[in-house]
């Protein structure tokens, strides 16, 4: 299995890092088969597989439940799991206990948390306690209420400078990598050059050290708005609908089940059963 060190080495060697989300056993099996460098159990699972409007309702229990399933499907892949909304903003004791549960109960190799300055000391404490932490800057979906929606971040100089500063602070506080979401590609390129730790982009252009996408978005299995930064690598939804429609047609026309899907009993037994019915 890869480690936090492997990702540093990949960056140093100029080998791009591929990460994708998984939320359950089958998606995890697929991710591992396809050789993903890391799997992210994103709190986007709230929107993608639980049908919420945002990531805000996702709980620690939800994350642990789904991460356990992902671990069973991808035992040999480095798994990062999102600390959900407001589970790392209270007292440090509560934060530590939440991170402990994520690590011990879910089987994750690391946790990810959103934010800059406000989470620096948290990242330091967690790292010192032995929890590998991935940072997340730029568009931070858990702030959707405060931001008033999802939009590209740090387009202007002042905010761009603040973001670069926060990237460096995260690195200094011990984060082993940073997700940079929905920022101009030029800014993501500068951040990737300035940092020693890998920058994994989503909607951040090609010059980051790696990419991450939401599994359902990229395979055409998503039912919310698909962000502009997603590239489509399949159309699972259409395949599923077509398959189920054909099944319904087959049932109606008695084309399913066929002989090969059915079980038989001995003729004499059948005869006796008919006898039993008649008498
Ligand atoms: N299915 C899914 N995919 C994701 O990538 C994702 C989630 N869910 N949930 C959590 C966050 C939220 N994310 C989002 C959600 C919407 C946009 C979005 O609508 N962006 C606009 C561009 C906005 C602008 O131009 O400022 C777009 O049109 O893509 C972006 C990121 C990324 N994450
Ligand atoms: C979009 C990625 C980076 C994420 O945090 C998630 O899927 O929850
Ligand atoms: Mg997330």
UniProtKB/TrEMBL annotation:
Pfam families: Pantoate_transf (PF02548). One of its GO terms (biological process) is pantothenate biosynthetic process. It is found in: Cytoplasm. The keyword Cytoplasm applies. GO terms for cellular component: cytoplasm. It catalyses: (6R)-5,10-methylene-5,6,7,8-tetrahydrofolate + 3-methyl-2-oxobutanoate + H2O = 2-dehydropantoate + (6S)-5,6,7,8-tetrahydrofolate. 3-methyl-2-oxobutanoate binds at residues 43-44, 82, 112. GO terms for molecular function: 3-methyl-2-oxobutanoate hydroxymethyltransferase activity; magnesium ion binding; methyltransferase activity. Pathway: Cofactor biosynthesis; (R)-pantothenate biosynthesis; (R)-pantoate from 3-methyl-2-oxobutanoate: step 1/2. Catalyzes the reversible reaction in which hydroxymethyl group from 5,10-methylenetetrahydrofolate is transferred onto alpha-ketoisovalerate to form ketopantoate. This is 3-methyl-2-oxobutanoate hydroxymethyltransferase. The lineage of its organism: Bacteria, Bacillati, Bacillota, Bacilli, Bacillales. The gene is panB.
